[in-house]
Specification:
2 domains
Length: 266
């Protein structure tokens, strides 16, 4: 009974690399994992924003650090990932990258799919390769991919994103099947409409394209969400911390939807 009463999710003694952690969901995950006792390695492209996050992270004595790379440059991300792996044994890898621009699939240029595939799946894969040896040596690891609810149901006007997110989802499930025997779990978090810069951009784009007021677009989106509101980045972070904890040790190869009930299937 004490097990079920305890809700503390300790990540003490763990090192977590959080991609896209200068703002939004990535920043919230870094903050929550630091609060839970993990040493945080931030990874994004803007050093000024990353330093601001470092200054705000709790438990500063854990010596949180940041690393920079442009995620449009897969070689730079790969090289930096392997450099980090030489300095730290990363226990928790959080793959989190902003999604491709909106638009219908049938109007997208083939290069858009190639770019998105590299920015998401290839970067994720290279970072996994960098930190996998340390995880296997420890017989413990967590790979958490922040994707999208489009893994379950494609979203309108997000043709490239829907396609690539699905590929990342199946890559993740394949890895979960292969790495479970090494004590490594691989899971996906599927956020719905969450209060981030990307949501602001989507709303603004719809407003301009449909010639509707921003507030009208917001209300249309909110009507699709049973919870009646947009999510907060911290609510996605709570799911990430749970998946990273010991209490999620038998959860592997699955999707955790954090969308207020919007997705139309289980």
């Amino acid at each position: 009974m004490d097990y079920f009463r305890s809700v503390e999710l300790s990540l003490s003694g763990k090192t977590a690399l959080v991609c896209g952690s200068s703002s939004g969901i990535g920043r919230a995950i870094a903050m929550e994992m630091a609060e839970s006792g993990a040493r945080i390695l931030l990874f994004a492209r803007n050093p000024g924003k990353l330093q601001a996050v470092i200054d705000a992270l709790p438990n500063a004595h854990l010596d949180h650090q940041y690393f920079t790379a442009d995620f449009q440059d897969i070689s730079e991300v790969k090289e930096t990932g392997f450099e980090i792996a030489q300095q730290f044994k990363v226990d928790i890898l959080v793959n989190n990258t902003g999604g491709p621009p909106p638009g219908p699939a049938h109007q997208a240029d083939a290069e858009e799919f190639i770019t998105a595939f590299q920015n998401h799946l290839i970067n994720n894969h290279n970072l996994m390769l960098a930190f996998l040896p340390g995880m296997k040596e420890n017989n413990w690891g967590r790979i958490i991919n922040v994707i999208s609810t489009s893994v379950k149901i494609p979203l309108p006007n997000l043709g490239v994103s829907n396609t690539i997110r699905g590929a990342v989802g199946n890559w993740s499930k394949t890895l979960a099947n292969e790495l479970g025997k090494f004590g490594i779990t691989v899971n996906n978090i599927l956020p719905g409409a969450t209060e981030t810069e990307r949501l602001e951009s989507i709303i603004a784009g719809k407003s301009q394209k449909l010639d509707k007021a921003r507030q009208e677009i917001e209300q249309e989106m909110l009507r699709e969400i049973p919870a009646g509101r947009f999510g907060k980045p911290e609510e996605v972070a709570y799911a990430a911390c749970f998946l990273a904890s010991e209490k999620a040790s038998y959860i592997n190869g699955t999707n955790i939807v954090v969308d207020g009930g919007r997705t139309g299937n289980l």
